[in-house]
Amino acid sequence: MDIKNGFVGSVGNTPLIRLNRFSEETGCEILGKAEFLNPGGSVKDRAALYIIEDAERKGLLKPGGTVVEGTAGNTGIGLAHICNAKGYKCLIFIPDTQSQEKIDMLRTLGAEVRPIPAVPYKDPNNYARISGTVAAQMENAIWANQFDNLANRIGHYETTGAEIWAQTDGKVDAWVTATGTGGTLAGVSLFLKEKNPAIKTVLADPMGSGLYSYVKTGEITIEGSSITEGIGNSRVTANMEGVPLDDAIQIHDTEAVRVVYRLLKEEGLFVGGSTGINVAAAVALAKQMGSGHTIVTILCDSGSRYQSRLFNQEWLASKGLSPD
């Protein structure tokens, strides 16, 4: 019998989906890792699990303890699920710019949620910094610290990267994804480059993030803004340090939104804005590389977490965006 051991045993081993229309248009195999099929609904279930189990192994988190984190939503949702499964409490600090759906879901899962005004990381009132300060003042509590906790990228090295290699029989030419903490991009890049240094690893970046310029010039420069949530950064995290990257592609919201709606209407996939960035970047990379290549990216989470924004025509219009 093939039976998973509870929520924890269900994380990972997601399918790799061929994106038919985009593959046919580019002449490349464009494949999406269906991370929205994780039990908590996003790619962040992997990092959440590895961070908690790493703390358990180190004796930092004991029965009845509390997991504290600053998160744009999906890592918090993964942490809350796993805390419930393992008997821990969960305290989440979240930027008040994030979708109401994510905040409501965190509270439904039983997490204590404290919305924080969105400010840059260098500001001591940044949501991630505040979560670390609060965790340090609590007994039997850990700060998940997803941005700089290397358990994050180790999880993706050991699972996501290994799965992609196995699912493609090692026949992958390029790997591209957006990044917030750096864990997914880093872990998979490190694994694939070890297997085959010729595999091209590429960072996809929204406007309003400094990582595109960092890869291109070595310096962080920020231009514009984006409606996407949970991706982009104004600094290089510990998870990103030393990661082999060959290039970066910058994607505007207009293209990301167009791709999200094409995925819905043409592929039947209901996904969020970060997936729009990822698939748009995979298409751009396919055009750069030419036909005959296999390119893998991440389908991060479900569009249901962005119903009131990304799939609200009035809200999109207020941002000067349209599915067309």
Describe the model.
The protein has 324 residues and is an alpha/beta fold. 41% of the residues lie in helices and 16% in strands. The longest helix has 17 residues, at 151-167. The radius of gyration is 19 Å and the shape is globular. The termini are far apart.
Question: Which terms would index this structure?
Answer:
324 residues, Rossmann fold, four-stranded parallel β-sheet, alpha/beta, globular, 41% helix, 12 helices, cysteine synthase, 16% strand
How many strands, which pairing sense, and closed or not: the largest β-sheet?
A: 6 strands, mixed
What is the succession of H and E elements? HEHEHEHEHEHEHEHEHEHHEH
Q: Report helical residue fraction.
A: 40-55%
- Principal-axis shape equals globular
And the CATH topology of the largest domain?
Answer: Rossmann fold
Question: Mind telling me which CATH architecture of the largest domain this is?
Answer: 3-Layer(aba) Sandwich
Structural class: alpha/beta
Gyration radius, in Å = 19 Å
Could you give the count of β-strands? 10
Strand order of the largest sheet: 1-2-10-7-8-9
What fraction of residues sit in β-strands?
Answer: 15-25%
Which blocks of ≥5 consecutive residues have pLDDT under 50? Answer: none
Mean pLDDT: 96
Number of helices: 12
Instruction: Tell me the count of domains.
Output: 2
Spatial gap, N to C terminus: 47 Å
Q: What is the name of the CATH class of the largest domain?
A: Alpha Beta
